[in-house]
Amino acid sequence: MADRVRVRGVTIHRPIIYGNTATVLTSAERLETSHYPDHTHRWTVAVRSATSAPDSDIVGGADDLGYFIKRVTFKLHDTYPNPTRNIDKPPFEVSETGWGEFEIQIRITYVPESGEKATTLYHHLKLHPWSITFPLPNASAVPAEPEIPSPENAAKLGPVHSWQYDEIVFTDPFQNFLNLLTAHPPTPLPKTSVNKKPIPFHSSNPASLEASLKGGVPEFTSAMEKEEADRLEEAKGNIIKEQEKWRSILIEKEKELERLQKLLASKE
Q1: Among positive and negative, which fits the CA dihedral 54, 217, 66, 184?
Q2: Is there a cis peptide before residue 91, judged by omega within 30 degrees of 0?
Q3: How many CB atoms are located within 10 Å of the residue 65 CB?
Q4: How far is CA 247 from CA 150, 251, 263, in A?
Q5: Greatest CA separation found in the chain?
Q6: Which of 21, 48, 7, 47 is closest to 187 using CA atoms?
Q7: What are the start-end ranges of the H helices in the chain?
């Protein structure tokens, strides 16, 4: 029973990525999917380890995550047959064809030894090599909408990638689960991309769009990991500032209300 004792004060994490890769269907492939004549793309949505294998043509996936993940459930759009797809062994991914972009719910269930609750993530399926742009705060003009390429030109640009880096954090893990995790250390992210691969695009980081259009298979690096952490810290700081601003406004309004109530009471 000692294995079922939580190790207090210990935090351990595992880096993952989740997202999708999409390609334009060729004429021959569209004939193969003739029962869905409106489908234009083939896509794969996945949960993988963050580090890419050397000379791999996929994003991430150097490590097998099956030692701590029992199941990944992908909830697709309801128009797909059997929209809830349970994947019980690596690779944790689903491949389909389609024509539209939509949000996919991703639920990660851990092995029984973990004693951990499932984690739910959300990913917006990206098929096209363009993105809706939004005006930046205090911007004087609205950015122009990006040009939507024709299917032929989109095919020439190659696969579209949209991936998000994340870290699954386990706090005070059970001893046997901690032993399991430490027996499988993750492959470290490279400091920089040796082959100058493009940075991965994700809608949470719109600035990555232009750099991601250089072609090739994207790769996550430790430098990107730090940049992501810095962006999160900046966002947290902005939220705290906004909370403080509205807290100050609320205090002032409450003082004003109290003053008016006293004034009203004095006239009664």
Answers
A1: positive
A2: yes
A3: 21
A4: 50, 6, 24
A5: 86
A6: 48
A7: 27-32, 151-157, 175-182, 208-212, 222-266
Cβ(63)–Cβ(53) below 8 Å: no
Blockwise average pLDDT, block size 10, the chain, 268 residues = 85 95 89 84 96 88 97 97 97 96 97 97 89 51 60 77 92 96 93 61 54 62 70 83 92 91 84
Q: Which two tokens stand for residue 44?
A: 């794969």
Q: What tokens were used for 73?
A: 């459930």
Strand partners, 110: 69
Sign of dihedral through CA atoms 36, 37, 42, 44? negative
d(C-alpha 159, C-alpha 25), whole Å: 11
Residues 6 or more apart whose Cβ sits within 8 Å of residue 13: 167, 168, 169, 170
Structure tokens at 238: 């902005």
Judge whether 157 and 149 are in contact, CB under 8 Å. yes
Question: Phi and psi for 125 in degrees, rounded to 5?
Answer: -60, 125
User: H helices of 183-221, where?
Assistant: 208-212
Identify the H or E element spanning 15.
strand 11-24
- What CA–CA distances, in Å, run from 251 to 169, 245, 255? 37, 10, 6
